[in-house]
Amino acid sequence: xxxxxxxxxxxxxxxxxxxxxxxxxxxxxxxxxxxxxxxxxxxxxxxxxxxxxxxxxxxxxxxxxxxxxxxxxxxxxxxxxxxxxxxxxxxxxxxxxxxxxxxxxxxxxxxxxxxxxxxxxxxxxxxxxxxxxxxxxxxxxxxxxxxxxxxxxxxxxxxxxxxxxxxxxxxxxxxxxxxxxxxxxxxxxxxxxxxxxxxxxxxxxxxxxxxxxxxxxxxxxxxxxxxxxxxxxxxxxxxxxxxxxxxxxxxxxxxxxxxxxxxxxxxxxxxxxxxxxxxxxxxxxxxxxxxxxxxxxxxxxxxxxxxxxxxxx
Amino acid sequence: xxxxxxxxxxxxxxxxxxxxxxxxxxxxxxxxxxxxxxxxxxxxxxxxxxxxxxxxxxxxxxxxxxxxxxxxxxxxxxxxxxxxxxxxxxxxxxxxxxxxxxxxxxxxxxxxxxxxxxxxxxxxxxxxxxxxxxxxxxxxxxxxxxxxxxxxxxxxxxxxxxxxxxxxxxxxxxxxxxxxxxxxxxxxxxxxxxxxxxxxxxxxxxxxxxxxxxxxxxxxxxxxxxxxxxxxxxxxxxxxxxxxxxxxxxxxxxxxxxxxxxxxxxxxxxxxxxxxxxxxxxxxxxxxxxxxxxxxxxxxxxxxxxxxxxxxx
Amino acid sequence: xxxxxxxxxxxxxxxxxxxxxxxxxxxxxxxxxxxxxxxxxxxxxxxxxxxxxxxxxxxxxxxxxxxxxxxxxxxxxxxxxxxxxxxxxxxxxxxxxxxxxxxxxxxxxxxxxxxxxxxxxxxxxxxxxxxxxxxxxxxxxxxxxxxxxxxxxxxxxxxxxxxxxxxxxxxxxxxxxxxxxxxxxxxxxxxxxxxxxxxxxxxxxxxxxxxxxxxxxxxxxxxxxxxxxxxxxxxxxxxxxxxxxxxxxxxxxxxxxxxxxxxxxxxxxxxxxxxxxxxxxxxxxxxxxxxxxxxxxxxxxxxxxxxxxxxxx
Amino acid sequence: xxxxxxxxxxxxxxxxxxxxxxxxxxxxxxxxxxxxxxxxxxxxxxxxxxxxxxxxxxxxxxxxxxxxxxxxxxxxxxxxxxxxxxxxxxxxxxxxxxxxxxxxxxxxxxxxxxxxxxxxxxxxxxxxxxxxxxxxxxxxxxxxxxxxxxxxxxxxxxxxxxxxxxxxxxxxxxxxxxxxxxxxxxxxxxxxxxxxxxxxxxxxxxxxxxxxxxxxxxxxxxxxxxxxxxxxxxxxxxxxxxxxxxxxxxxxxxxxxxxxxxxxxxxxxxxxxxxxxxxxxxxxxxxxxxxxxxxxxxxxxxxxxxxxxxxxx
Amino acid sequence: xxxxxxxxxxxxxxxxxxxxxxxxxxxxxxxxxxxxxxxxxxxxxxxxxxxxxxxxxxxxxxxxxxxxxxxxxxxxxxxxxxxxxxxxxxxxxxxxxxxxxxxxxxxxxxxxxxxxxxxxxxxxxxxxxxxxxxxxxxxxxxxxxxxxxxxxxxxxxxxxxxxxxxxxxxxxxxxxxxxxxxxxxxxxxxxxxxxxxxxxxxxxxxxxxxxxxxxxxxxxxxxxxxxxxxxxxxxxxxxxxxxxxxxxxxxxxxxxxxxxxxxxxxxxxxxxxxxxxxxxxxxxxxxxxxxxxxxxxxxxxxxxxxxxxxxxx
Amino acid sequence: xxxxxxxxxxxxxxxxxxxxxxxxxxxxxxxxxxxxxxxxxxxxxxxxxxxxxxxxxxxxxxxxxxxxxxxxxxxxxxxxxxxxxxxxxxxxxxxxxxxxxxxxxxxxxxxxxxxxxxxxxxxxxxxxxxxxxxxxxxxxxxxxxxxxxxxxxxxxxxxxxxxxxxxxxxxxxxxxxxxxxxxxxxxxxxxxxxxxxxxxxxxxxxxxxxxxxxxxxxxxxxxxxxxxxxxxxxxxxxxxxxxxxxxxxxxxxxxxxxxxxxxxxxxxxxxxxxxxxxxxxxxxxxxxxxxxxxxxxxxxxxxxxxxxxxxxx
Lengths: 313, 313, 313, 313, 313, 313
Hints:
By secondary structure, chain A is an all-alpha fold. Chain A contains ten helices and three strands, in the order βαααααααααββα. The interface between C and D is large, with 135 and 136 residues.
């Protein structure tokens, strides 16, 4: 169960409204790697967790903190949308001919033309659960697999991309209020990258998971292909990297560089289609059209059915 | 530019058709963490890469290999769909009353009822660019940020989840052909987890990126919040983890456990709305309805516009 | 800011696992009118609220309660997925010919075939942020417009559909644990329907909004069409309803039944297309193909540009 | 079956083209609460209706009218896109250095940069089945549940949000043609709000449904929780509303304000995972890696299967 | 404007309910190539049409007919869902251990498990605007470009795929009612394929469009690449087709088979990244971390700005 | 299996960066009819192909070529995004009042405001797998049915729309580099329209398919409706087209113009609803509320179940 505290975790209002920046900032709120994603990802991982209590508790701690981050960004966006202009300048367009090709002449027109229209028509000056192009947040953005190592790597990835985006947005404004707020978010994401790196270390040090996840892969996988780098692109620059030579990161093998990879499988030839699907097969079906011919098809199917135990239905 | 080689990279056909398993196997082909995702993710990262040549070449090597993995799975699914039953048993349902509540009585009926209907009606027995629930693959599944460390962490995450899913699907069949094929895929994913771990090491060892990505976060972020763990969920089990004590993973600080976190921000109070948006504000607009009242609104807006340089349009 | 309390708001575990029911129950969790929707809808309405404090506080109260409902359903689904079968019966399919058309013969096969495959491969036995067909929850499911009357009507609608679905799911199981849990949810939805009806009454009684929302519609709309029912479908049964006669619900007019509605507008004829878009217009462009002809087009565009102030770019 | 009449229900062309406004107006056409939504919602409700004839007829009347509203908006948008500029001003960018950072200097450039690009490249100057951000209309936007009270509340909500958006768009233009057209739409939405309020009254007065829908909720729900308001957010401003005191709107109880809500459920602890899913459980699986260890897992599964009737497959 | 006629264009009810078939039949209603698609595609093409009147009228004729086809399928699906079972057999699962792995033993259980759950919980036994996997219809499914030849080819494609699916569904049932209904739909699709072929002929014979659309492609395209077939896949079987030899279909050239295609472009090397985006470039940024180093970056940016007219903002 | 060649198939870099044009060009890369669509469409058709080898090989040839086209466009977009401005001009907005409504005054501001924000924040100056509105590419964009004639018509449609869009984008720029590149793409699309027309001819000439696809439609469809044009829209302009008179294109009939089409079906009346779904039926359920009444419902259901063999579950 959850409780809400009215004060925000941290908040500095913007110095001035900026609807264009509000549009861009939606990426951190509702983008595929924004705060709604980490909030939902950590909460679902916590709710689905079957591991030791400290992991489950930690996931719910940070998931709960992230609800508050969504709250902060929603509030920031509402401030940035204050006094957003609604329509383009009409003075310059009184003349009908000019008007036909005219959009506006002042900075407000740029804003009106380029802001997310839904920030006015749909949300009435509030935040939206969407990214910076207006695309809605969706549940396929999150990962909660039940395997904590796989999931912590997902979390590290999400925090790395999220911090990168926060830094880029920091560079994209000079508003001291916004920058102060983002300084807080950037610090928390810094913590969270450290946190997931530490959590990964913990899982491995406690023997709950191994470098390659899940560890049963060693048992099921064909070992001869488990450490080869296949050079599928012309040139061998890729042979210069750590991934192409030396011991593998799991300490169980040596990287092998396959410079001229050759196919190991056959040329596939799919079975001929069920006549009832009307796929194009190797021989003509078109000649079979007409009452008579189609009865032949029916008979063929019947025969196949009769010779097939459990046969065609 | 790309070339195609007719033979598959590796292929073992299934021992027998299994349309239900074909439905499930679509997850590895078109799921959010399946082969289409890694194929597109590595290709876009490669095409967008502005880093050293060995990284770009390596990304295009593995991206090109993954096109071949999509090919393998598409071929496997077509084989698994061969001879899929099309309709439910009609013998048992001749009696109209029974028929009204009757679905079928034999194993073929289970298949017909539960397989992905589009595997018959839409693809005619072929693979679909969709996941195991029929949801289509989409471009928001991939990450290509231009920052290689952030992206390699995304790649490590994708290969970890993908391998986990491949192993689960391995457990879900006894078909020796399918299992042999998955043994190859599992081995390649094992390699790819090792590969991304090695590539991360390489990036850091060459000084191109640091533990926290992007490194400018240290400059922009508020250091006082950069190493704190906030305990937002009742109970302190989360204090037992490595993420709550000891040196941080970037070697720049000490984890700090904040057991009773308090808000640092104010209670937000949004500005009153633009009257032209018809949000509900703190005072009634309803009394203003009607010709007279609405003229008052117009005048107020006019006045605001006049006293505001550049004012309300 | 938010806090988490480890105990659930209410919880009764199911008597037994039931993966098929878990699939169906996802509708209440991640469906377009499920708990994720009301949770996000109330939180965004609260965060975007510019109205009196009691409304904002109330919205955040109920939004916070709904996070806990998502938590309850996620937990219930994880229990229902416990011991879900992973693969179909292989004994019956040893014979290769039988196997070709065979799916399974026992109840476990039905479950394995028909459950949401992602409940095994993707979430490892946990809940998904998706509906009962596997379609992910998305941000377009919610409404937060800034106008409280419009939004409270959205809330009433969401709680009405949600309760209807909860009741249907109650009828679809005999598991006493699940039914006990749903009895709690049904009671809360009963409250919430009452709550939004009361909140609508409050808004109107305080003069913040009127029956028709937004009230400025009376000023902008053409009154002659504001109370007419147009009979666009053959037959006049629709004339028998309350919506076709008597005083309108806003107390400002009388419903009027237009039995034989006639169009009031012209037959539209769109302007001819810009030649650079290559739409099909009323005269042939095909004759203009070739070097010579296309230069004619260029010249025509030039001329149009020159006679048009600000002209074609 | 449907018939088309060439004249529009109502139409006033715009005074002048305005591609930016065309982009915004798409919200009323293809937005989640636009005309495509109400058209499809009323038609599906009508087609699925099993209630008295007057309701079914009324739903098909208004659904059919709404097809005509989609037609009107599509026509309006095509007019607004006439003579839309296609490319940015090149005169100012002849100098290569300037050009590198240059976008354009006149109002036409603002339009070209900010209009929906698909209005030129994809639709060739025509309307799109999408909202104002370019997001396509989709079937999850509509509600047709079979329960008329629940559905009429959905309809009231859709008309309320739709009218609010129409009014906002009315404020966002000075084009007298567009405003005249919107005056018609606003009037029809005014009617439709009245209509659904009247239809709700009718359903209840005829005893087909009761205040809380569906009425069986009283039978299934736990009465003790059916009238409580839970104060989940700090502060008790929410206690001042009508929803927290006095008789409930269904006349069956009294609202009760729970100022300090406490959880009623247990702390959940999920069952340990199936070893074949490779979730992280409370004890290490990593130690079990290798041929020998994994055989142990197999045996454990076998034993569990044997002691479980119907057991693990 | 549109009118509705209560009688259906054609209708034969099913002999008996069949919820599994209802799920599959949704493909024809709400699939990407189903009736909702052709309905919307033809209506939008008609509304956006700027060509001769007979084309616009024809598009609106067939678009209007297709609304009636959606109506027919919605009605058929509601009949097929009548008496759909709601829950699985409980008799066999009284024993808790058996129950844990038990799903059901009779045909009704198969139906309950495999039908689209939303057909019960969401639509209450009615049709959904979705395809056979439950994925919602959306606006990106349709094409309306303004160019009639391009659009008529889209229409021919849609009718070809739609008829193919209708035939497959015809084969998937023995219900005489359903088959009779589909015989009507199949005939109409037969007409519509003929219709679009005829309309394409008409457009070309009237000189409104030429074989290659749009005809200006001849002017803009590099002629040397306009008739070459590039053999990008090993083996030369593709050289045996009509597309690799003989006169081209537009009568303007000869097909040329390029057996060993070679790249004509350079190896791309992207410009080094803007330092403010924190992409990984060819040289280390990591060394620049810290107050001092980052000031250097700032200065570099300043210098670049100063030497760039209009410079970095 | 696939191989990558570092050189591009063809490439001319742009003369200068243009982030607005980069946004628009995304339509050709990730739009519903862009290069990702044809790439995936041809590859899936090739992988699923069960027809003669020359068709399969040809599909994989062109699918492989299209991967290279995606590569070209991704590279072009990265060049166009070089030096994209990141933030709006701050000089003009020092004054807080002006700042409140100020957006920017120079051309760079237009770019910053109107470019796709994700081109900076998400991709760091690289291409995205999305269209020109930012909507992601998805798998429902492609068609691969197994029937080659139906699929080749889909391919012809895709190449026609794609070429139309390429031509429009050609008109929308004066950059000589971009135009040169598009001249190559336009030529290839010219080839591909010719190619699919030739491939259609080949299929028919070899008797693999007939004009109407699939040919079995003649057997299943009601011949009396297979050649009628129904005039569903007022006016008879549509009677003037080739589709309304003369021999049908399949040579099997004569087009017939039905000027006053009448419905052939009945007025539908759906069966009354299952009481457990709580749909609104023709008689009141509301009177049945309460312990007693609901027991009556239960009994009725029981009775129905008992008299129904296999009965209600």
